[in-house]
Amino acid sequence: MTLATLAKYTCATILGIFFVNVGIAHFTDTPWFEPIVPELLGDPTFWVLLTGILEIGLGIGLVIPQLRKYSGLFMAFFLVVIYWANFNMWANDIPLDGRTFADFWHLMRLIAQLLMITVALWVGGWFTSREKFV
User: Fold this and answer.
1) What is the DSSP letter of 128?
2) What digits encode the pLDDT tens for the residues 54-113?
3) CA nearest to 126, candidates 73, 85, 79
4) Rounded Cα–Cα distance for residues 127 and 105 (Å)
5) pLDDT at 111
6) Exposed, middle or buried, 15 (CB in 10 Å: 0-12/13-18/19+)?
7) CB of 114 closer than 8 Å to CB of 80
């Protein structure tokens, strides 16, 4: 196994486990996530639980090599879509645990989101060059 392959497997496992843990937190601490769900979507509990299911599934998919390619792609798409909640928290200065966050921390969250999107696509193999057919 090459160092690059080991790095890819390690990153896939770390990101996958992180997503499973965050997904579980959507069920064990649902009220913590609810305030940032955009009002336009309606019932925040539904959306928190749905995203929790998706995060667990995508995390598991990233860890399993046979599912990694499409889990990475769907995780990237998911991360783009759910950033709406984080942007909602930033734009409307929504507190979590009674405190709001400075712009710096919201920018750090955006950078982390972009990094997770990049890693999900990378471990899924979406940045590799395609072989040319003759």
Assistant:
1) S
2) 999 999 999 999 999 999 999 999 999 999 999 999 999 999 989 999 999 999 999 999
3) 73
4) 29
5) 98
6) buried
7) no
Contacts of 77 (CB under 8 A, 6+ apart): none
- Residue 83 to residue 76: CA distance in whole angstroms: 11
Residues 6+ apart with CB under 8 A from 117: 75, 76, 79, 80
Name the residue among 56, 59, 36, 50 with its Cα closest to residue 116: 59
Give the closest residue to 71 by CA, choosing from 14, 18, 120. 120
pLDDT digits (tens, 9 = 90+) for 96-107: 989 999 999 999
pTM over 0.85, yes/no: yes
